[in-house]
Each structure stands twice: as C-alpha cells, then as structure tokens.
C-alpha cells in the first residue's frame, strides 16, 4: 500500500490550521502596528495613563522602606537594610490580636451587610417607575460624597452627652443619658450602620445598572408563563446578577486586611475608652506614626496589607473559578 503524505490542514481541509506561535520580534511588530492604527484613542487615554503611573506605580519604589532603617540624611536607597525587623512592630505589639481581629471582623461585616442590603435596594428600585426612581437614586447616592470628617460631626450631633439627639430622646422617655464615646458595646452596631449608610448608595447603583442590562425578553417570557414578581427576582434577576456580585465580593476581599481609617478614626472621635471595639490596623499605625515618627514600621504594615489583599483576591478567585468559571474575575 502506498504511503500517503499527511494532508495540510487549512481553510479548505475542514479543520482549522494550527498557526505557529509568533516570534518575539513579530509580536512587537504587531503591537506597534496596532498602536499606530489606534493612535487617536491612545492619545486620548494618555493623560489617564500618565496620572495612573505617577499616582499608583511610581510611589511603589517606596516599598523598600518596609525592609530598611530609613534615615533622612542617607535617603531611601542609602539607608541600612534590616530585613523583616520592621514587621515586628505589628505582630509583637501588645494590642496586635485586638486590632487584627477588629479589622477582619468589621470588614467581613461591611462586605456581607453591604452586599445584601444593596441587592435588596437594587431589586426594589427596579420595581419603581417614573420620577420616583431619580429621587431615590439621588437620596441613596448623596451620603457617598460626604467626607468622613463631616460624618464625624454628624455622629457627634447624635452622640454628644449633653446635647446629642440620642440622649435627648432618651430623656423624653425618662431614661438616663449615656456616654456613647466612653462605651465599647454600642460601636459594634454603630460602625456597621454608618458604613452601610455611607456606602450603600454606590453599591446599589452598581447592581441596579446590572439589572437594567438584563434583556426584557426574559421577563416577558416569564410573565407569559404566569410567574410572579418574586419568582422573576429569584429565578431571573439574581442568577443573572451572580457574576457581578461575585466580582464585587472578590474585590471587596482585597481590602479585608485594610481598615476604613476615616470611619474608625473620626466617628468614634479617637477616644481611648472605645478602642477595644473601634481600633483597627490603620488607626493603630496612624497613632504610632504620629507619636513615634516610625516611617519604617508604617511602611511595613502597609506592604503587609497589600500582600495579604493580593493573596486573598487570588485565592478567592481561584476558588470561584473551580466552582463556576464564568463568575471568576480572571
């Protein structure tokens, strides 16, 4: 039997041709050709790229301060290397367990509570029509633009011992006023409520935008089958929002080791009596930095927070990818 030559697979051969991998030089040539073709768009994006590089990437040179004993007269690169010595500041601190516990528990609470509440509000907003939807959007989104300094003053108006609104209302019912800033238990509830009030508007609008992107054909077909509004929420809206919810949840986990400094510093008014339930890593490092001027330890803690956040995001994404590949971030 005569041996036949292997057929060359191509466009006419029924199977797709296996393209050879381009050489590095060819890849660079293709990229330059692509950039030349889209030079107008790149020119428009150039200010944003430069801003991102200067603000986010250029300062990363300072990460080496986490491994050095910095001296002003020697500069960043001339200072002495000390290895992991600066990281002992956090783990050997007397309050290390407390501030790490508070940071993790509060962030988990903020993520779970914020996700559930924002989803519920987005589903309810989807049922509204007319001008009411604009009013609710503005009302929910307005606290997002209020600075944490102003939030601290608003909190003081409610919690002040002599003239606070809460103590005034307690007096109406014949109850004794409370020193809110000198107690620890109330802050377990006050901080999550304040975080929810300030951030829920942005999260709600993100989920609402995702809902508006769902094709109306699904809902029309469900109505023809006699589905109720609750059934359409649970069987259509929530399943189609799952990838967006998972992505935002993974991104939220990236800050699990990073406390909300503004919320935990200005709202409790930096009163030492409530530190057991309000102090987080960022506020603790800030006080240590202002009192000891220890730039090295502060840089080490910031570097550690970033590393833990990166590991958390990658691990959470890998777990989601194994369960549902389409819902993974990358």
From TrEMBL:
<keyword id="KW-0813">Transport</keyword>
<protein>
    <submittedName>
        <fullName>Sugar ABC transporter permease</fullName>
    </submittedName>
</protein>
<feature type="transmembrane region" description="Helical">
    <location>
        <begin position="298"/>
        <end position="320"/>
    </location>
</feature>
<keyword id="KW-1133">Transmembrane helix</keyword>
<keyword id="KW-0812">Transmembrane</keyword>
<dbReference type="InterPro" id="IPR000515">
    <property type="entry name" value="MetI-like"/>
</dbReference>
<dbReference type="InterPro" id="IPR035906">
    <property type="entry name" value="MetI-like_sf"/>
</dbReference>
<feature type="transmembrane region" description="Helical">
    <location>
        <begin position="108"/>
        <end position="128"/>
    </location>
</feature>
<dbReference type="InterPro" id="IPR051393">
    <property type="entry name" value="ABC_transporter_permease"/>
</dbReference>
<feature type="transmembrane region" description="Helical">
    <location>
        <begin position="187"/>
        <end position="209"/>
    </location>
</feature>
<feature type="transmembrane region" description="Helical">
    <location>
        <begin position="140"/>
        <end position="159"/>
    </location>
</feature>
<feature type="domain" description="ABC transmembrane type-1">
    <location>
        <begin position="100"/>
        <end position="316"/>
    </location>
</feature>
<feature type="transmembrane region" description="Helical">
    <location>
        <begin position="41"/>
        <end position="67"/>
    </location>
</feature>
<dbReference type="GO" id="GO:0055085">
    <property type="term" value="P:transmembrane transport"/>
</dbReference>
<keyword id="KW-1003">Cell membrane</keyword>
<feature type="transmembrane region" description="Helical">
    <location>
        <begin position="239"/>
        <end position="257"/>
    </location>
</feature>
<dbReference type="GO" id="GO:0005886">
    <property type="term" value="C:plasma membrane"/>
</dbReference>
<comment type="similarity">
    <text>Belongs to the binding-protein-dependent transport system permease family.</text>
</comment>
<keyword id="KW-0472">Membrane</keyword>
<dbReference type="Pfam" id="PF00528">
    <property type="entry name" value="BPD_transp_1"/>
</dbReference>
